[in-house]
Amino acid sequence: MKKIITSILAHEVSAALRPVASAPGWGGQTGLRVIIIFTPGGGVPRPDRCDRTKGRRRRGGPPQCLGRVRRHGDPPPAGGGGAADRRPRRGRGNREGTGPTGPSRRNGIGGRPVTSVPARGPAPAPLRGHRPGDFVLAAPGRTLLARDPVGEVVLRPGEPEGDLRERLAEGTAAGAPRPAVAVGALPFDPGAPARLVVPRTVVSMPRSADPPPPPGPPFEVRCRHEEPSAREYARGVARAVDRISRTGLRKVVLARALDLSLDRPVDPGWLLRRLAGQNPRGYAFAVEVPGADRRTTLVGASPELLVARRGRAVRCHPLAGSAARDADPDVDRRRARSLAGSEKDRREHAFVVAAIADALRPLCTALDVPARPSLTATATMWHLGTRITGELADPEVSSLALARAVHPTPAVCGTPTEAARQAVAELEPFDRGHYAGAVGWCDAEGDGEWAVALRCAEVSDREVRLFAGAGIVADSDPRAELAETAAKFRTVLAALGVEPHPTEPPTE
């Protein structure tokens, strides 16, 4: 009988709430779910006695209502309710039985949804809710948004994790979720200091498959500047090939930048959603980075996972060896087959895999490195990729420590590392900053995920600086490497709705 009554009540309440869910303030939020929790005790709903938000003071004693309504993603009520709310939450992902926002190694940033939000208002949507200063990393499976910093972690060369643990503990005391998390970006240069922040508000939930927002009116490009120019870049490639032939250098990655001055400001959140929608299997990100005189946001859609850690499990997915995609399916398939069989690209890829395996092997009790790479596709490029997995020997080694151990890989720098860094410093006429660094997070349990900062741009009002690079080995052709960078620029150009420069070489 109770089941029948509960079913009827659920049907009636759901029907009553349907117009509410489509009203202003509720509508337009894709994936919104209303959760109805029935509790014993009878009576009619009394909103003044219902705990809708964790931490809010209850008025008038324990709840005496038939049902409580809260939005998916909101924290659970602080006080009583039914037996379902009082029952300890156990099982995988919450071994301490403290509920979805309590301390737990598996409680959500890398697993089930976890939300820590201010006392009033719904949890922000990770992509659609982006606002200036927010950190967002939309991985293939989950999206994490962080805001409202309560602490800062400064990482200096020679200090494995700086004062990370102390800052995370302070963040928890200041209201950050448990486990507290540090988010941010590592610069390309491992000798430069890095700044991470500990946010008070963290939202992590499954990545939605929302289509990208419409491009809107086309941007007018007022000024376009390449650094270096196409001709200068080709000359730099030729010099790098010469250096490889004469020295112990085996590979170096040379990048160039494309500066655009547009007719109106670019909203980093809009660009983030465009990139995430056009690259659903990539790592879309937005993170504030130091700018010369105004707010600067690094926005991108990287295809490459640097490293992820969950418990003792470690994952990497290095990419090296690339070919531009084509709108013609037959041509596109031929390019993929050609890349898979390219001796030059397979050799370039092998440098990266060997370097990462060498960095991880002393830290792992087991490491699985496939013998052959596989093809990985983005909207604009084909890549050779290898999925590396391992098991940590020491559970105290955090994802941040792993990221700093393997960065920079030969995929973004070259090999041997020091010789390649010196070549980059001499042959590139600009400072990479956080391009080709890493963007990610690390929590107090050591879990985390870091993506290589590729296919990205620095956005500052109406000024946008795009980056792209190519790996140079002994048999590299300057024209082909130049074409590869032009193809990689198109990830962000397509999101902006800006046509490639007509003077850029074809990608044949």
TrEMBL record:
Residues 39-132 are annotated as: Disordered. GO terms for biological process: salicylic acid biosynthetic process. Keywords: Isomerase. Its EC number is 5.4.4.2. One of its GO terms (molecular function) is isochorismate synthase activity. Residues 231-488 form the Chorismate-utilising enzyme C-terminal domain. InterPro entries: ADC_synthase, Chorismate_C, IsoChor_synthase. It comes from the Bacteria. It catalyses: chorismate = isochorismate. Pfam families: Chorismate_bind. Belongs to the isochorismate synthase family. This is isochorismate synthase. It comes from Thermobifida halotolerans.
